[in-house]
Amino acid sequence: MKILIITLHADPTIPPGAQEGGGTHMYINELINLLIYKQVDSLFITRKASGGSDFFQYGPVKLKRISIGPEGIWDKSNLDNIEEVIKITIDKELQSQGFVPDLIHSVYWHSGRAALHFSEALNVPFIHTIISNGIKKQKSGFEIPPQRIEMEKRIFNSAKFLIAISAQEKENLIKYYGIPENKIKVIGRGVDNIFLKDIYDGNGTLLSKQEPNINTDDSI
Fold first, then answer.
1. pLDDT at position 198, please?
2. 11: CATH
3. Cβ–Cβ under 8 Å, residues 92 and 45
4. Which of 13, 73, 134, 165 might form a disulfide with 148, Cβ 3.0–4.6 angstroms?
5. What total number of domains does the chain contain?
6. Is 176 within a domain?
C-alpha cells in the first residue's frame, strides 16, 4: 500500500515548543515514525514552515516540504483562500515523484479539502484527522471563515474514517455534523518522549541535549 499524507497545518521537522511546534506537529512526527517502523511506502506533503531542506527520506517514507507562504511563523488563515494553489502545488509534486497513492490521510480541514479533491481525482479513499471543528469553535466565540463549515461537512461525509483526539471531539462530530458513531476513531493525544524524562537536575543544569524523534538528515 502507498499512503499520501497531506499535513499543511503542521511541519513535523519543527521540534516541540519551537515556533508553532505543538501537538499537531508531534502527531505527524509520531505517524512518520510508525510508518518507518512498519516500512510503509508513504509520502508526506507539508508546508515548509522553517529553513533547511525541502526533502527528507527515511527508508520507504518520504517527506516533501512545499513552499506555500513564507518560511517561519505564518497565519494559517492565509490557507483559507488559496485552494487552487494548494491543489496545483501538490499535483506537481505527485507527478514529480511518480507517486500514485492507494490511500490518502489528511490532517485539519485545509488538508482535508485537498485530500477530498485528490480522492475524487484519483478514485482512492481518504481518512481525515479532525484536530478541531468549525461549528464548535464558532459556538465558542471564534470567528470562522464562511467556507470552512460547509467544506468540513463535505470532508467528514466523504472520508472513509475520521480520527478524533478525544471522546468529546467525537461527540461534537456526532452532535453538530451528524456523523455516524462507527465512522469515528478516537486515538488520544500523543506526548513526545522528551517530555517523559527530566531535562534539568535539581540545580537547574541541563542534563543532556534533547532532540525530537524525527531525523532531519537527508537519509536515515
1. 66
2. 3.40.50.2000
3. no
4. 134
5. 1
6. no
